């Protein structure tokens, strides 16, 4: 059976971490607007480049991200979608272009989110995710997977992380309420080790 999984959660909730595991386990595509936009930060669009929005912690305009998601989903048999939809207009667009098998919300407290974001380090070469305290690499600053350099994302400073959380509470919480009202949302407690959270998600999907 193909899986079409939507993973919702605040910045730092663990969407990227869990999506990578889900893509492996269920052999589906990991579709993430965040990574797609980071790979195209300086792409010229009629609204300007994604970079200016991302570095301020703001949302990139809907038409830009809608196009990215439409193209990615058209190519995918099964998928885990991460980072989209982030507002009700995007949620409506998504409902027009695909059907979902599961909608999972990773629930994590705000102060935990800030700690996770500010301590995150990502590999500049392969994109693997680490955390200075919670998931430290074997050698500080060096990627366990490929030996690449670990860097801090521009938007993971405390100031921009808090701005991103504000944007989440204002724009994306209504999306979560929408799926909850429709009866489609399964809430998973995201405050445990990555492996434990993964077990919880797998239990939901295998039910
Ligand atoms: P995006 O890249 O999507 O970022 P985000 O939603 O803010 O999510 P993050 O990647 O920060 O967190 P995550 O939930 O994936 O957590 P992770 O697994 O890495 O978006 C960035 C920007 O792009 C946006 O601000 C916006 O400008 C733009 N954008 C993207 N999509 C858009 C859209 N649809 N519309 C408009 N604009 C859009 O984990 C975080 C850290 O915690 C890591 O260090 C990890 O090691 C650690 N960790 C993970 N799980 C655990 C655990 N269980 N216990 C302890 N530590 C953990």
TrEMBL record:
Q: For the region LID, what residue ranges are annotated? A: 119-156
Q: Which PROSITE patterns match?
A: ADENYLATE_KINASE
Q: Which CDD domains match?
A: ADK
Q: In which pathway does it act?
A: Purine metabolism; AMP biosynthesis via salvage pathway; AMP from ADP: step 1/1
Q: Which GO terms describe its molecular function?
A: AMP kinase activity; ATP binding; zinc ion binding
Q: Where in the cell is it found?
A: Cytoplasm
The record's annotation in HAMAP family points to:
Adenylate_kinase_Adk
Q: Which family does it belong to?
A: Belongs to the adenylate kinase family.
Domain writeup: Consists of three domains, a large central CORE domain and two small peripheral domains, NMPbind and LID, which undergo movements during catalysis. The LID domain closes over the site of phosphoryl transfer upon ATP binding. Assembling and dissambling the active center during each catalytic cycle provides an effective means to prevent ATP hydrolysis. Some bacteria have evolved a zinc-coordinating structure that stabilizes the LID domain.
The identity of this protein, by name, is: Adenylate kinase
């Amino acid at each position: 059976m193909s899986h079409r999984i939507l993973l919702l959660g605040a910045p730092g909730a663990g969407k990227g971490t869990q999506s990578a595991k889900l893509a492996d386990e269920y052999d589906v595509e990991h579709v993430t607007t965040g990574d797609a936009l980071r790979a195209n930060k300086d792409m010229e669009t009629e609204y300007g480049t994604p970079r200016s929005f991302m570095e301020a912690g703001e949302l990139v305009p809907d038409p830009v991200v809608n196009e990215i998601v439409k193209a990615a989903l058209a190519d995918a048999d099964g998928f885990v979608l991460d980072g989209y939809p982030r507002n009700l207009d995007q949620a409506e667009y998504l409902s027009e272009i695909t059907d979902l098998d599961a909608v999972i919300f990773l629930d994590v407290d705000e102060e935990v989110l800030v700690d996770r974001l500010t301590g995150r380090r990502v590999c500049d070469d392969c994109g693997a995710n680490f955390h200075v305290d919670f998931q430290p690499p074997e050698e500080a600053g060096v990627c366990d997977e490929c030996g690449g350099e670990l860097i801090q994302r521009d938007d993971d400073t405390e100031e921009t992380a808090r701005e991103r959380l504000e944007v989440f509470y204002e724009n994306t919480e209504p999306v979560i309420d929408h799926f909850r009202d429709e009866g489609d949302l399964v809430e998973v407690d995201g405050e445990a080790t990555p492996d434990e959270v993964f077990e919880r998600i797998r239990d939901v999907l295998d039910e």
